[in-house]
Amino acid sequence: MSSETVLPQPTVDPRLRDALNTVQDPELQRPLLDLGMVQRAVLEADGTATVGVLLTISGCPLRSTIEADLESALMQVDGVHRVTVELGVMTPEQRQELKQRLGHTRSIPFADPDSLTRVHAVASGKGGVGKSSVTANVAAALAARGRQVGVVDADIHGFSIPGLFGIQRGPTKVDEMILPAVVEVPGNARRDNGTPGCVKVISIGMFTDPATPVVWRGPLLDRAIEQFLADVHFGDLDHLLLDLPPGTGDVAISVAQKLPHSKVLVVSTPQQAATGIAERAGTLAAMTEQSVAGVVENMAAMVMPDGSSLELFGSGGGQQIAESLTERMGHPVPKLGSIPLDVALRQAGDAGAPVVWSEPDSPAAVALREIAEQIDGPRGLAGMSLGVTPR
Ligand SMILES: Nc1ncnc2c1ncn2[C@@H]1O[C@H](COP(=O)(O)OP(=O)(O)OP(=O)(O)O)[C@@H](O)[C@H]1O
């Protein structure tokens, strides 16, 4: 049963508290209780548990998920035979308090020198080399390792990240704070603190009609990147990946300025070395004083059904680019891996399910996982958490 009214101050029956602690807001990925979203939770003598929950906004798209999660958690409690959820909506003051609890400010948390989020901007010299597929799958592979991963689709004109994750709906806006779409890893990958691995995605494609082209130029692109990084509440991320547009344009420079500690991952095909195209993407990093974390070679030799391999796009390019960038950058730039051409990767992308999740044993998924492993690592500074973590 549901109704939308503003509810009184919280009272929580201690018998219900443990079960309530297991129920998270699906977008904020934190327990409803911690977020101040539970207004009351009582257990009547007849076994009815009644919970009053305040939604962030009326028409919250995930209200039925919240109701279902509460019901299944509370039905596990001894003596509970029935669960009634009463839904209300936060007042502007309560939303303000929520934002304070979340530590949400309108600055870029990942630019903070103390931030423990590893930030990688994924770049390529030209379009169509699989940069977005690499970004989405490396993010998905990191999440499967129990990490919380943010993906900013900074390829504003050619956005494709929502499709690669099968995201259908737009983000929720709580006043000026934007909540990214949360894609949970199938299965049960967990972080050290027990929260599930997931990918949080923001893309201009979640705000616009897919059939309408985005025709923004310089300043508007910069503003969009600023909003994605400052107004979107990603929470405490282990990794942030940015899918840059192909080439070396305004957005790459904007990202470098806003996230000076970000590292660049260069994606290229095995044939690109000859033209120097992919190297330019890496060399831009030197100009913006970023470092290059490595080179990912994509569309490498395909394994044929008879076991032979077909080098459709040649071979050796990734290694050559890595060596050349090592020389230009003045620091070692490794080739992180070689992802074969693989029908499974293309099919998974079309179906909106990253291949590392849907076909984990496919040759492309194996290579992508190895790349993710190399950019992952223990959480910095003895597990200290990021400044954006509340309380
Ligand atoms: N290793 C691979 N095997 C098979 N297909 C691939 C592989 N990598 C990418 N593709 C396919 O190639 C196409 C282009 O990939 P993707 O969109 O990831 O490239 P992109 O570099 O991000 O392109 P753009 O910069 O133009 O957005 C997609 O259809 C994708 O499924």
Automatic annotation (TrEMBL):
Per UniProt, the keywords (alphabetical) are:
ATP-binding, Hydrolase, Iron, Iron-sulfur, Metal-binding, Nucleotide-binding
Q: Which GO terms describe its molecular function?
A: 4 iron, 4 sulfur cluster binding; ATP binding; ATP hydrolysis activity; ATP-dependent FeS chaperone activity; metal ion binding
Q: Which InterPro entries match?
A: FSCA_dom_sf, MIP18-like, Mrp/NBP35_ATP-bd, NUBPL-like, P-loop_NTPase, YlxH/NBP35
Domain MIP18 family-like: where? Answer: 16-85
Q: Where on the tree of life does the source sit, at the highest rank? A: Bacteria
SUPFAM superfamilies from the xrefs?
A: Fe-S cluster assembly (FSCA) domain-like, P-loop containing nucleoside triphosphate hydrolases
Q: Where does ATP bind?
A: G125, K126, G127, G128, V129, G130, K131, S132
Q: What biological process terms from GO does the record include?
A: iron-sulfur cluster assembly
Classification via CDD domains: Mrp_NBP35
Pfam families for the chain: FeS_assembly_P, ParA
Q: How does it assemble?
A: Homodimer.
> HAMAP family of this UniProt entry?
Mrp_NBP35 (MF_02040)
Question: What is the similarity comment for this entry?
Answer: Belongs to the Mrp/NBP35 ATP-binding proteins family.
Query: What PANTHER family does the record tag this protein with?
Result: IRON-SULFUR PROTEIN NUBPL
* Name used for this protein in its record: Iron-sulfur cluster carrier protein
What species does this protein belong to?
A: Kocuria subflava
